[in-house]
Specification:
- The structure is a single chain.
- The protein is about 40% helix and about 15% strand.
- The chain is an alpha+beta fold.
- The chain folds into two domains: about 100 residues, 3-Layer(aba) Sandwich (GIY-YIG endonuclease), CATH 3.40.1440; about 60 residues, no CATH class.
- A hairpin with a 5-residue loop joins strand 2 and strand 3.
- It is elongated and about 60 Å long.
- It contains six helices and six strands.
- It has a four-stranded antiparallel β-sheet with strand order 1-4-2-3, with helices on one face.
Length: about 170
């Protein structure tokens, strides 16, 4: 592999283009990417076999922190090369502390349940619990969609309906 570029030497790219979408050129691109907030403060470093899909997932989880990107693509998928670039960038930036779960895992709408929701949940049968979790997930989905709209996102966002039954939100 050629020399790993320093993160500071890569150019900032807008997270969303003029049309309010993630640049489709990143679809099916393999590489390492860094996500920055509005002030260009580093928030997250990840790698992916499809940068576009990963960026879309991060956008629904952390819309307030997804304003700028720096990306290094590679042509052949190699987890070891991707991990090496990522680790180099993390080291270069003082081993950035990131909540990887919040950036990568499905959104847990159950965390937004009120005390009353929780009490009701424990009194319900399995079908009732599923219905309540779907309701909570839909409320969280509406809040996310409002944040994305405020952020200027124009691309279609579709959540996996099966996961809503578990109180989780993730892209389909």
């Amino acid at each position: 592999m050629t020399e790993i570029p320093k993160l500071e030497n890569l150019e900032y790219l807008p997270y969303l283009n003029q049309e309010g979408i993630i640049d489709p050129e990143f679809e099916r691109q393999i590489g390492v990417y860094a996500v920055f907030d509005q002030e260009k403060t580093l928030q997250f470093i990840g790698y992916s076999r499809d940068i576009y899909l990963s960026l879309k997932q991060h956008l629904i989880r952390k819309p307030e922190q997804c304003y700028w990107l720096k990306i290094e693509t590679i042509t052949k998928p190699s987890r070891s090369i991707l991990a090496e670039i990522r680790q180099t960038w993390l080291t270069e930036n003082g081993n950035l502390s990131m909540d990887e779960t919040a950036w990568n895992d499905p959104i847990d709408a159950k965390l937004t349940m009120t005390k009353e929701d929780q009490e009701q949940y424990h009194k319900l049968d399995e079908l009732g619990q599923i219905k309540l979790l779907k309701k909570i997930a839909r409320i969280t989905e509406t809040e996310i969609n409002q944040k994305l709209e405020t952020r200027g996102v124009k691309m279609e966002i579709r959540f996996n309906p099966k996961l809503k039954e578990k109180g989780l939100l993730d892209l389909k």
